[in-house]
Amino acid sequence: MIFDELREIQRQFGYVPADQLKSLAQKIDVPLYRLHGVASFYPHFRLTPPPIADVRVCQDMSCHLRGAGDLRTGLDEVCQNSGNPGVQISAVSCLGRCNEAPAVVINEHIYTKMSQDQIESMIGKALAGIALPEPASQNQRVQCASDPYGEGERYQVLKRLVESRDWAAAFATLRASGLRGLGGAGFPTESKWQLVRQAPGSEKYIVCNADESEPGTIKDRFIMTHLPHLVLEGMILASVLTGARHGILYIRHEYEEQERILHAEMERCREANLLGPSILGTELAFELEIFVSPGGYICGEESAMLEAIEGKRAEPRNKPPFPVQEGLWNKPTVINNVETFSNVPLILFRGVDWYKAQGHGGAAGLKFIGVSGDVARPGVYEVPMGTPVSDLIFKYGGGVLNGKKLKAFAPSGPSSGYLPASMADVRLDFKALADAGSMLGSGALVVCADDRCMLDMALNATQFYRNESCGKCVPCRVGSQKLVEMLTGWTQGNSSPTDLPLLDELSDALRLTSICGLGQVVPAPIASVLRHFREEVDSHLLRRHCPSGVCSCNKTPGEPFTAMLRRA
């Protein structure tokens, strides 16, 4: 209720005025300090009037690789030269449009692949009071190999299970399939659902995490667009198998089109008695609602997401207890991501043998992968689990952009770190990527061409984590900023002989003492660059020279690092 009320106020006024916040606090009987703490935490809410033309350029990974930095610099210059106080140019974290980079928000409308001239035209319209055009819709359905129904009758698995009541067989099939969470953590799905089923009490919840906010991660948006029925069927199956009667689909607010698609699919389910107080006329019940995120990457952390649903600041909880024990409203809760839920009907419909046969090299199933960055055909591809990364880049993605050579790739956005081109034959598989010192994660392959500076890419990823830290724990809040300052200094030609030992100490502190995964992966980008691209980093430190000509250290005079080492 808090977020609905805040959104309505912002819709009326363009922001949340102080007097309206005070009135709302009295209306819903929430202390003003707590309400202000919530409203000020989330980037979706404004506490001051917005400019007439509010332009925010995505600054993260894929957009960074596709010219967002130059785009923002050009817009800044135009804004400063115009002197118009009604225009504001700023940065924004990943908008989930990585395959269409660069992405920009203009007065809450998300546009992609726009030139500076086109954006300036939009700014002119906004200043003139002309309504901006709606972004183009992408609601043209694509047939996917992972849809077991094709053009046939949907929700057959649910209907069969409700009729047979063979819960044990369904659990056995999921266990035999080896299905693991496909949002990053990779926890066995059947084990999680069994823990909730066996938990005491009748009040339990099913939560779908559709908040994908990590740079490069776009697969869940694709699945919700083209396979919404599988996502909902997976959630309903989870409710039937665990005994949960309530569900929340938590979706990021930038996914307005996907929200509409899901609402329409939910209505079809209600009309067919697949949702509601009596599923298919039985005593089984499942009430499902969509919760629109008020923003923030931290909301993707499962316990922080639960805090947001409960109307609080999205700050991670200490663990244990885990959500399967005490989740939403302190009740046992299943939390899985979009792709995991969509796989459940597929496995139960086609069987374990079929599912395992879809993978390569011992891996099971199909996998949706978002491919972006320096690649000719960015997009979302459905491939066999175990597919070599090189196939995704060169076969599906059309090779490196503009005929350049491959230098590096991140298998799963910034949290996975960077691997060199020499490792491009690594397979998309939990174990194979773990053995390579990386991870499958959320399935976000970001490609870097041979003219990229890997220190610059590490800095960009670290800035993202710094910007998105919730600030609850000191190691993450302070450590991420310190790491950004250090790496920024390296790119500018400023470094100290104590930097590398300090970086090791700081990285250990972040990994060992941060409350949640965000703080723990902050050092991952620079650690991988130091491991695989050490000569490039040494060039910055020892010679104040960026081999790719990207960093400003090439233009920075000063004492060579080797001289400082001798003097030290």
Notes on the structure:
The protein is an alpha/beta fold and 568 residues long. The chain has 24 helices and 13 strands. The chain has helices at residues 2-13, 18-27, 32-41, 61-65, 68-82, 116-127, 156-164, 167-177, 189-198, 219-226, 228-242, 256-271, 302-309, 338-350, 352-357, 389-396, 430-435, 454-468, 474-491, 499-513, 517-521, 524-532, 534-543, 561-567; strands at residues 53-58, 87-92, 103-106, 109-112, 205-210, 246-251, 287-292, 333-337, 366-373, 379-384, 406-410, 419-420, 444-449. Strands 10-9-13-11-12 form a 5-stranded mixed sheet, sandwiched between helices. Strands 2-1-3-4 form a 4-stranded mixed sheet. Strand 9 (366-373) and strand 10 (379-384) form a beta hairpin. Helix 19 packs antiparallel against helix 20. The protein is globular, with a radius of gyration of 24 Å. The N and C termini lie far apart (60 Å). Mean pLDDT is 94; it is low at 556-568.
> Largest sheet at a glance?
5 strands, mixed
Averaged pLDDT = 94
How many strand segments? 13
Helix percent band: 40-55%
Strand content: 5-15%
Measured distance between first and last alpha carbons: 60 Å
The backbone outline, from C-alpha atoms, is: globular
Structural class of the secondary elements? alpha/beta
Uncertain spans: 556-568
Largest sheet strand order: 10-9-13-11-12
Radius of gyration: 24 Å
Number of helices: 24
List keywords for this structure.
24 helices, disordered C terminus, five-stranded mixed beta sheet, 568 residues, four-stranded mixed beta sheet
